Amino acid sequence: MEENKNIMFGRDSGQNTAQIDSSALAKNFVSNVMTYMTAALAISGVMAYWFGTNDSLMRLLYNADGTGMSMFGWVAMLAPFGLVLLMGFRFQKMSSSGMLLAMIAFSVLMGISLSSVFAVYTASSITTTFLITSATFGIMAVLGYTTSTDLTKFGSILMMGLIGIIIAMVVNWFMQSSTLDYIISGLGVLIFTGLTAYDMQKLKRIGMQVDSTSDEGNKFALMGALTLYLDFVNLFLFLLRFLGNRD
Fold first, then answer.
1. Whole-angstrom Cα distance, residue 62 to residue 69?
2. Residue 186 class from Cβ within 10 Å (0-12 exposed, 13-18 middle, 19+ buried)?
3. Backbone φ, ψ for residue 148 (5° rounding)
């Protein structure tokens, strides 16, 4: 009987140790993800403010004759999408340092492309919206990290909703309906609020299985940071349509 107790105790102790180890791995991994994401947002914020409040720099994004965006403007708008595809499809072959450089370039170009919000909305409303976005994002991230509920099915529904609003945005680009734009904005806020919790839970699970100090773990952390960055920025932009005061 005593031997059985020792065996059972040893088994429980091993399981507890494994749980502690996986929890520690997840914590370190998510910490790295949040560090990268915060740094990327800071870079984008600085670039957006720098360009958005400097008329000479803003003129670089548009043709002098007023016919639309310049070549540099198109690069700033489309290159971030290309870098996202590069990091996704070349994940296995790129080194973590290469992915870090791609992430920095992405953050810079995204910041430049986001500078137009300073030409449309007042600085005070942008600041207020950013603070509200930060609070919403933080709450949902903590919820996603701590909840024991499996959000997989919830995430699948949100992804289908995301595809739906992308299609609706393309349609509305031709229709120019203010009502449809309002509906899209509301759905966008809901979808990216939910995706923040879903993505955080997914990253926690990834973190339980990878060594955050390894090259591969660092690459996963960068991809996780990119995912959360996009959640944050899209949530901010959709909220800005509701809360932003136009100049």
1. 4
2. middle
3. -95, -5
pLDDT at residue 23 in the model: 84
Task: State how many domains the chain has.
Answer: 1
Beta bridge partners of 205: none
pLDDT, one tens digit per residue, over 218-242 is: 999 999 999 999 999 999 999 999 8
**Residue 59: exposed, middle, or buried by beta-carbon count in 10 A (0-12, 13-18, 19+)?**
exposed
pLDDT of 2 > 90? The answer is: no
Query: Predicted confidence band at 12 (pLDDT cuts at 50, 70, 90)?
Result: low
Distance CA 87, CA 91 (A): 5
Integer-rounded Cα radius of gyration of the chain: 21
Q: What is the pLDDT of residue 212?
A: 79
Note the pLDDT of residue 64. 77
Cα 203 to Cα 197: distance, rounded to the nearest angstrom? 10
**What is the spatial distance between Cα 81 and Cα 99, in angstroms, rounded to a whole number?**
15
Q: What is the pLDDT of residue 34?
A: 97
Indicate if the pLDDT at residue 19 is higher than 90.
no
Those residues whose C-beta lies under 8 Å from the C-beta of residue 85, and which sit 6 or more positions away, are none
Domain that holds residue 190: 2-243
Q: How many CB atoms lie within 10 A of CB 229?
A: 22
What distance in Å separates the CA atoms of residue 244 and residue 125, rounded to the nearest whole number? 5
Burial of 6 by CB count in 10 Å (0-12 exposed, 13-18 middle, 19+ buried)?
Answer: exposed
**Cα-based distances in Å from 134 to 69, 86, 215:** 31, 28, 30
Q: Decide if 223 contacts 87 (C-beta within 8 A).
A: yes
